[in-house]
From TrEMBL, chain A:
It comes from Bimuria novae-zelandiae CBS 107.79. Residues 53-145, 197-240, 257-283, 608-773 are annotated as: Disordered. Residues 735-751, 759-768 have a biased composition (Pro residues). Belongs to the NPR3 family. It is found in: Vacuole membrane. InterPro entries: HTH_NPRL3, Npr3. This is Nitrogen permease regulator 3. It is a peripheral membrane protein. It comes from the Eukaryota. Residues 668-680, 693-702 have a biased composition (Polar residues). Mediates inactivation of the TORC1 complex in response to amino acid starvation. Required for meiotic nuclear division. One of its GO terms (biological process) is cellular response to amino acid starvation. Residues 55-70, 713-727 have a biased composition (Low complexity). Keywords: Meiosis, Signal.
From TrEMBL, chain B:
Residues 308-354, 418-442 are annotated as: Disordered. GO terms for molecular function: GTPase activator activity. It comes from the Eukaryota. This is Nitrogen permease regulator 2. One of its GO terms (biological process) is positive regulation of autophagy. Residues 314-345, 418-441 have a biased composition (Low complexity). Belongs to the NPR2 family. The lineage of its organism: Eukaryota, Fungi, Dikarya, Ascomycota, Pezizomycotina. Pfam families: NPR2.
Length: 852, 535
């Protein structure tokens, strides 16, 4: 689906299951403590595609809403009623009722939804004998959710922990188990056969830089981990043993020894945990053989694959690997697990409530805390910052789209507030340099907020904060890095980092000369809240509705909205603010070259003339006796039969064939091309280089058959041969040689039959009436005739500047590159681009359209 | 969807002594190794590692259980029957289907598996359908590995697996009689996206000709009544009015049609509305096929004058399908360039231009690209009169909307002052509003008719006047409304207060209050500090 779906992890619970020799499969920890029953999960499957409105129009909606539909009778209030109703009813209509997709309130099913069990169990034929479901039901009602130690997600704990402990065949594989529409996604990690969790490797010293970029840090880690595991050589195995395989009879001191390995702050924390843990048994062989972190999702059917994949790739797998890393370092997972199990056991015996116990566990155990953090953040579609211990913390998220080029129609999933633009769409050009350097970075939070968060991360925030302070949305990264003497790569690195971690967005630098419109995808339901924060921020300036109103007039450059020069900065701030909230988007211009009938006629006439010229020469040549060898002429004759009727062979084919050229006299073939490309106007190079698309080649062949026989195969070779031949006497002989026998291998599918070849070219001179104007869709991949048209157009310009840069401009006339990008990319001044564009426009050569 | 998505079907039984075993598998050797010559060389996945999920604990029985192994997704429905007549009082089996792990819509297969599982359970409970044949076969007597395929030949369950695999893969449905009283009827239903909410101000347009169907599509009375009025011009509210149906029922009926893809939703066409291109416009410009389709759709029928707006070009029927193809074709350069023959080649005008008033693709492109934000359609029409010869403007716009390369710029209003301290609005503007309604309508119709738009006066008036059909009643209503609003002046902004939060577009407001846009806008603007903006 091209249209991105609103971010929604559909995460319902996180489970940690371990399998150990002493305890067998164990569900160590689950979060949230009072998990919804599987039945409740089923019932609350609401695709949030249509945001707020889901409730008002969904089929299930019954009587209460119909009153609203009867228009005038029910004034205000009705909407709110429905919203509340849907929230409590919890049925199909209970979607996400929050404001925008970014900060919505999650309606999470709680244990209160026991009543909905019926739907799940409806066709249990003999409830008594069937056991499972019925018992849960009884337990649930009987004990109440908060005392219910024996069921999780409506399943008995023992059954659940067994089924979530897969065989070793699932080692490092995706574990996906679906029970009805509830999905358990896990990444099981098994201990190695030698009892280690990881081949011993030199512990990586984390430089500050790495810790700073925690996301990448994790990427490194996972990369390393997999490499290490695969690599046969293992170093320092003894050291590993020393640390991880404890000598017998070491029970009491277990924790302390590990602590010595744990640096600083968390050490005491962990140590105390472990001391209290001393009751549990351990022996010297690794007790735990497997752990499996399971994320429980209930995605709607259509989103199943996507949501599960997102969760597994971005969270489950990475988190499991991080845990494994910790486990390898100092038995982190098992130590914590035993501790948690212990606390749970005692609490259960004392008849404590789940919530109280869970609060305790989470406060004591960093592992439990990490799971809780993970759940809270990911289920709210936020970024989870996980602190495993003092020396290792990292972040997890399911990346979200930060922009889309598609405006959803009424029947497609809605994502109001998502930035609407094509500027982030990568045009599939191999020579398209990444836009990053020319883009500006729009921070999605204020500098202060980001810096404060950085401070919390303690790393070398000073450097980073310097970088961040320099960022302004009105200047491209390149300009900023030049101005502040920052390495361009550093700047880009930081930019990518901030973008990945949702702190910023790459935009085209905001400029008063650019045009901005109210985004059709703006989130109107968020308007009231936005107005309030806008007023706080820009109290003395026109209100938000006023600004939106100004921006929804006929599109014009932003500077016309700025009353005086003094207001410029403030108005640019407003623009940045509006951009941040997805209220506005830049209106960008896209263009194609329109070829007029006049040009076509002109080119056709030229080509005909050349053709005649060539024909004559050919005749001359054959009449006077060929200078060529027999081989040459025999090839010629062959060529006239096979290759002859192929009109408009694109340049590339010819050229490549030339280079590949078998036993041909290469220079005679090459020379015209070289003449053309060296002496012709500068743009020639580009179509030549870009015509690397096989598709266009074939289309060229099929599209121009009516140019009839005798058309030149490769116009570039022929272009103005007379003028060039004088300037390049060396290549003089070249135009003498016939071009029709293109030296390419005979095309198997020539459009016209070879016999036509011998007929004379159509005699009447082409006139503009015979042509209609058309567009050149992709100048970079223009076929031969198109290339000539473009060339001819290029010659019509009076302005030397346009003529000189016509080829550069052409690159942007493919409907995919915005005209606004010319200036930053090519390093031209805006004014100059504007003037050039004006010139081209005045000639009527462009079809232009403006969108985002 | 005959996709042959099912890779294997197999039947697993749990034996109290011998453990779990695959009794039947299609194709042979797909689950457990099999010595038959025709069997697959390698099983699709390791049966042993899958056993816990095929024969789970009772907790997980009698519900759909899927798991992924070796890039396959196994969809099973383990059944556990507890009854005294079985050894150890329970009988456990699982009828499961194997599909590719990446299969997007596996849920459809899940429903089939669930149904078969329940059916087998029923059959077993009724007459020992499954256990009975085991006794006869002596399935568990022999421990040899290839027992499974040999017993297959005469087994009903085996035959069932075989038929289901073939039928579902080839026809996506099947009907298999089991015995006198039982028949299996299965069909793979593709999962459809949830239908969007339907608003009263939206305009439905059919993508397939429902009236051409011989049998009525539904026994839903509302649906039958509203169908004749769905013409791409009437809004939902208007349709409900014309068909004399309840609005909420109408909305639901239309929602059903949307769900099944018979209908797309547009907005109220109006010459005061603003339309602008979306990013998809590039796809249209490079797609010659779409342009031709557009030409066919927008050309004013010259011969069939009486046909009016209800005759529909066949191209509309494919509108929905091809909508998605617009973007895909644009991205697929080879497709695009191969279809580009005509425009890019600079051909002399082709013979099929024998139509008078031939609309060239270029005209369409010029017209579409000249639409922009802030430019009402009326103005745009006047600006491009010379190009619009033979073109139905409504269809031109509608085509763009359906294909997604145009969007309607909706107008919103938001009250910036708190309603309690409302400044006195000039009463004249409000009073004059209703009286100006009728004349303004007429004026615009005449204005439109100068643009020579045959057969679409209806749409014009409709645009200005959301409830054009209910003329008399409407005027009454608006008059009433103005009286009410006049009385409530200063309190409620003429009853529009609830719409002035920036979340209700003018179409919606007009539709709700039953007044034309101009009237509504006048009322809104006269109602105090209100900002009107569009997006």
């Amino acid at each position: 689906m091209a249209i991105p779906l609103p971010p929604n992890s559909h995460l319902q619970a996180v489970l940690l299951v371990t399998k150990s020799r002493s305890l067998g499969p164990r569900l160590v920890f689950h979060y949230p403590p009072i998990s919804p029953s599987a039945a409740a999960l089923l019932a609350t499957k609401a695709p949030a595609w249509f945001g707020n409105d889901t409730s008002t129009g969904s089929i299930d909606e019954s009587n209460d809403s119909s009153s609203d539909w009867d228009s005038s009778t029910e004034p205000d209030g009705a909407d709110e009623d429905i919203e509340i109703g849907s929230r409590t009813s919890g049925g199909r209509g209970s979607g996400r009722t929050g404001a925008s997709h970014r900060d919505k309130e999650k309606v999470r099913p709680t244990a209160g939804a026991w009543g909905r069990q019926e739907s799940f169990e409806e066709d249990d034929m003999d409830g008594e004998g069937d056991g499972a479901g019925g018992e849960i039901d009884k337990d649930g009602k009987h004990k109440g959710g908060d005392r219910d130690w024996d069921t999780v997600l409506g399943f008995k704990v023992d059954a659940l922990e067994k089924i979530l402990c897969p065989t070793k065949a699932f080692n490092k594989r995706r574990f996906e188990l679906g029970v009805e529409s509830v999905v358990f996604v896990g990444a099981p990690m098994f201990v190695r056969d030698d009892g280690l969790w990881k081949k011993r490797k030199k512990r990586r010293k984390q430089s500050d830089e790495e810790r700073l970029h925690k996301g990448d840090m994790l990427a490194n880690l996972t990369l390393n981990a997999s490499q290490e595991e695969e690599s046969p050589g293992d170093k320092k195995k003894e050291e590993k043993k020393e640390i991880f395989v404890l000598p017998p009879g070491f029970e009491a001191g277990y924790g302390h020894d590990i602590d010595s390995e744990v640096p600083s702050a968390a050490a005491s924390d962990v140590g105390s945990d472990v001391k209290s843990d001393s009751t549990t048994n351990h022996n010297n062989s690794p007790d735990m053989t497997m752990f499996n972190v399971v994320f429980v999702l209930n995605p709607p059917a259509l989103e199943h694959q996507m949501r599960v994949k997102d969760m597994y790739d971005n969270v489950t797998k990475k988190y499991a690997k991080a845990l494994k890393y910790e486990q390898a370092r100092f038995e982190y997972v098992w130590k914590e697990s035993k501790h948690i199990i212990d606390i749970k056991q005692r609490a259960k015996e004392n008849g404590e409530s789940l919530t109280v116990t869970w609060r305790k566990i989470v406060s004591i155990s960093p592992l439990a805390r990490s799971l809780a953090t993970m759940f809270d953040a990911i289920s709210a579609d936020k970024i989870a910052h996980i602190h495993f211990d003092a020396s290792f913390n990292t972040s997890f998220q399911i990346p979200q789209a930060d922009s889309t080029p598609y405006l959803p129609n009424a029947m497609e999933p809605q994502m109001p507030g998502l930035w609407l633009t094509t500027s982030n769409v990568v045009v599939d050009d191999e020579n398209d340099a990444p836009m990053t350097q020319h883009a500006a970075l729009l921070l999605l939070q204020d500098h202060e907020v980001i810096l404060k968060d950085l401070q919390a991360e303690k790393a070398n925030a000073a450097v980073l904060s310097f970088y961040i302070r320099t960022i302004v949305p009105t200047k491209s990264l390149l300009k900023i890095s030049i101005k502040h003497n920052i390495l361009a790569q550093d700047m880009e690195y930081i930019a990518r980092h901030l973008v990945y971690w949702r702190r910023a967005r790459l935009i085209a630098p905001l400029h008063p000369r650019d045009t901005y419109i109210v985004s059709p995808n703006a989130d109107m339901s968020n308007l009231q809240a936005a107005m309030a924060s806008y007023v706080q921020r820009f109290p003395t300036l026109p209100s938000l509705p006023k600004m939106l109103s100004l921006l929804s007039q006929k599109p014009k450059e932003y500077r016309y909205l700025i009353p005086t020069a003094e207001h410029r900065d403030a108005y640019m701030d407003i623009l940045a603010w509006l951009m941040r909230g997805g209220w506005v988007t830049q209106l960008r211009t896209f263009a194609w070259v329109r070829v007029s009938p006049g040009i076509k006629a002109q080119v056709a006439a030229e080509m005909e003339r050349e053709e005649r010229l060539k024909k004559e020469r050919e005749d001359n040549e054959s009449a006077t006796g060929s200078l060529r060898s027999d081989k040459r002429s025999s090839f010629l004759s062959a060529g006239t039969i096979t290759g002859g009727p192929r009109p408009g062979t694109p340049l590339r084919r010819t050229r490549r064939d030339n280079y590949d050229g078998d036993d041909m006299d290469a220079s005679t073939i090459l020379s015209p091309h070289m003449t053309a490309s060296t002496s012709g106007p500068g743009w020639r190079g580009s179509p030549a280089r870009a015509s690397s698309d096989a598709g266009s080649t074939s289309s060229a062949r099929t599209t121009i058959p009516y140019h009839g026989p005798g058309r030149p195969t490769s116009p570039l070779q022929l272009s103005s041969p007379l003028s060039h031949s004088t300037t390049k006497p060396l290549h003089r002989p070249s135009p003498l040689h016939p071009k029709s026998p293109s030296p390419s291998p005979a095309p198997p599918f020539s459009p016209t039959s070879p016999t036509i070849q011998n007929q004379p070219p159509p005699s009447p001179p082409p006139s503009p009436q015979h042509f209609t104007s058309s567009l050149v869709l992709n100048p970079q991949k223009a076929n031969a005739v198109e290339a000539r048209w473009l060339e001819a157009i290029g010659k019509t310009f009076q302005d030397a500047d346009i003529r000189g840069h016509w080829s550069t401009l052409l690159k942007y006339f493919d409907g995919k590159h915005a005209i606004e990008d010319i200036s930053p990319r090519e390093g031209f001044k805006r004014k100059r681009v504007g003037a050039m564009m004006q010139g081209v426009r005045e000639g009527g050569w462009l079809v232009e359209v403006r969108h985002w | 969807m005959p996709t042959r998505a099912i890779k294997a079907i197999f039947f697993t039984r749990f034996h109290h002594e011998k453990g779990s075993r695959v009794l039947h598998q299609i194709p042979e050797g797909s689950i457990t190794p099999c010595s038959s010559l025709s069997a697959l060389r390698n099983p699709l996945f390791s049966f042993d590692s899958a056993t816990p999920y095929l024969i789970p604990t009772q907790q997980f029985c009698d519900r759909l259980l899927t798991f992924c192994v070796n890039h396959y997704r196994v969809i099973g429905y383990p059944v556990c029957i507890r009854e005294g007549r079985y050894s150890r009082n329970e009988f456990i089996f699982n009828w499961a289907v194997v599909v590719e792990e990446s299969l997007a819509d596996w849920v459809a297969y899940g429903e089939v598996v669930r149904k078969v599982g329940r059916l087998l359970r029923g059959l077993e409970e009724q007459g020992g359908f499954v256990s009975g044949e085991e006794d006869g076969m002596g399935a568990w007597d022999d421990d040899s590995e290839d027992k499974s395929w040999r017993i297959g030949s005469g087994s009903k369950v085996f035959a069932l697996c075989e038929m289901l695999l073939e039928d579902l893969n080839n026809y996506a449905e099947c009907m298999i009689p089991i015995d006198d009283s039982n028949t299996i009827n299965l069909k793979l239903f593709p999962t459809r996206p949830p239908p969007p909410p339907i608003h009263a101000h939206q305009v439905p347009i059919l993508t397939i000709s429902l009236s051409a169907l011989s049998t009525p599509i539904s026994s839903d009375l509302t649906l039958t009544r509203i169908l004749p009025y769905i013409d791409g011009i009437n809004s939902v509210a208007h349709i409900a009015q014309l068909a004399d149906t309840d609005l909420s029922l109408t909305r639901k009926a239309i929602q059903h049609l949307v769900f099944y893809g018979c209908l797309v939703l547009l907005d109220i066409f109006s010459f005061t509305a603003v339309y602008a291109p979306t990013a998809e416009i590039g796809g249209f410009i490079v797609d010659a096929a779409a342009q031709e389709e557009c030409v066919r759709y927008v050309r004013v029928p010259r011969v069939r004058w009486g046909g009016g707006s209800t005759t529909r070009d066949p191209s509309v029927s494919s509108a929905r399908d091809s909508q998605s193809s617009v973007s895909s074709q644009a991205s697929d350069t080879s497709t695009a360039s191969s279809t580009l023959s005509t425009p890019s080649s600079g051909a002399p005008v082709l013979p099929h231009s024998s139509y008078t008033h031939d609309i060239s693709p270029e005209t369409l492109i010029t017209l579409y690209t000249s639409l922009r934000q802030g430019l009402p359609l009326r103005q745009w029409v006047l600006d491009h009169l010379d190009l619009l010869g033979g073109i139905d403007v409504r269809r031109l716009i509608t085509f763009g909307i359906i294909k997604g390369f145009l969007y309607r710029v909706h107008k919103y209003a938001i009250a910036t002052s708190t309603t309690s301290s409302l400044p006195p609005a000039p009463p004249t503007s409000l009073q004059s509003a209703p009286t100006s309604t009728a004349p303004s309508t007429h004026r615009n119709v005449s204005e439109a008719s100068t643009i020579r738009l045959p057969a679409h006066k209806n749409s014009v008036s409709n645009g200005l006047f959301a409830h054009g059909g209910g003329g008399g009643r409407l005027e009454e209503m608006s008059r009433l409304d103005s009286i009410v609003s006049g009385e409530e002046m200063g309190g409620e902004i003429g009853g529009l207060g609830r719409f002035l939060d920036g979340m209700h577009c003018f179409d919606e407001i007009c539709s709700e209050v039953g007044q034309g846009e101009r009237v509504v806008e006048g009322r809104v603007k006269g109602a105090g500090e209100v900002q009107v903006f569009s997006r």
